[in-house]
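Notebook entry, structure prediction.
Reason for the run: the old model in the group folder had no record of what sequence produced it. Starting over properly, with the input documented here first.
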Amino acid sequence: MSKSTLQPRTAQLKSGSQPWLHQHGTEIQGYGTVRQFPLGLSHDVRMYSCQRLNQLLADTQILYALYKKHHWLMRGATFYQLHLLLDKHAGEQLELIDEIAERVQTLGGVAVGDPRHVAEITRISRSPNGCEEVPAMLSRLLEAHELILVDAHEAAAKAAELGDDGTNDVIVSDIIRLGETQAWFLAEHLVDTPLVRTD
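New structure, fully documented this time:
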């Protein structure tokens, strides 16, 4: 094969088929702002809802990451069951992240997405870099759920008061209901019930 056949044949490419790489642009909407959409909700209501949703979104992204981490680090006699359960919960949290982000965008806001930005605004405590005992990992997940649920109940009530029914619905139907169910499943794994009766 000749050297000339190894050279790219850019002259034969149509102008519309070559991607324009390494593009940089200016920020066209800042985080913490909302665009005007014809939603029947005031600017202030949409700003409030976006702020509350972005906090829930950041915390939910950290909860998702904790679920994946703890899913990998499970050990002991219940490894298989917990490994599968935590991965199932992680998948449900990942879907929830998309739901929350889409609600922020629907309101004209900018959803928090960069992991570095998420780490700056989350209220969930950072876990150790290494592996904890299984009950400690499950407790950490429960504490994160409770933090999110407390915030979600407050945000849902305020959204309803402000007339933002869509945000209220996302928070109640998606965040709260899923969080309560997942917390229930986790809590049952921390009950010290013997497998057999000894009396």
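Summary: The chain has one domain: 42-188.
The old model has been moved to the deprecated folder.
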